[in-house]
Design a protein that fits this description.
This protein has 228 residues and is of the alpha/beta class. It is 48% helix and 17% strand. The chain has nine helices and eight strands. The strands form two sheets. Strands 2-6-1-7-8 form a five-stranded parallel β-sheet. A three-stranded antiparallel β-sheet has the order 3-4-5, with helices on one face. α2 packs across α4 (97-107), α4 (97-107) packs parallel to α8 (174-190) and α7 (154-167) crosses α8. The longest helix has 17 residues, at 174-190.
Amino acid sequence: MKKITIAIDGFSSTGKSTLAKQLAKHLGYIYVDTGAMYRAVTFFAMQNGYISNEFFDKDTLKNSLPFIKLHFQFNADLGFAEMYLNDVNVEKEIRTIEVSNFVSKVAEVSEVRSKLVEQQQEMGKDKAIVMDGRDIGTVVFPDAELKIFMTASAETRAQRRFDELQAKGDSVTYEEVLKNVQDRDYIDTHRDDSPLVIAEDAIEIDNSYLSREEQFQAVLELVEEVLN
């Protein structure tokens, strides 16, 4: 059976990971959440005092990269792989608004991107993979057979993210989440190294008014076109 690489890029909180998980499960493919990898490096930087609201010690983080070990481990109860940082499960810790506030700054660092892109390309060398992030179709897998770019208004994305954090019991305001979304959009699209852009051959999907099921079915049709 034909195996392909599916690259899903887009702005924060557009549901990239949800869609990627659905596709991977349906196709029996490997799913890789590259955002979790950048979040884990960010969490490492926060733990070690390399980044705060007042400063960012990029040089020390760069020098610490050889000591950052990342891997995904499948959790059968949850139905997806969780992120491990130096053999410690950090899946919950990396999803906080605090990590969200710093992750785009950490992802700007070329040395961080280089290390993680190399790992991501190794993961996808045998195809049969669904990977989501910011530069999958442009940098990680420029030859991917199917590239999806997901977008929605900042307000819609902020509301989704706010609802998720509220459901987890996090104490945040909608205004705080909206500012985070807008700030990340700016950094992601303006960084010098691998900025968030739509690949020329990507199919753009605005899911502002789509349910998860409608979105999944629309993309599944695109997958089946490529497979057939």
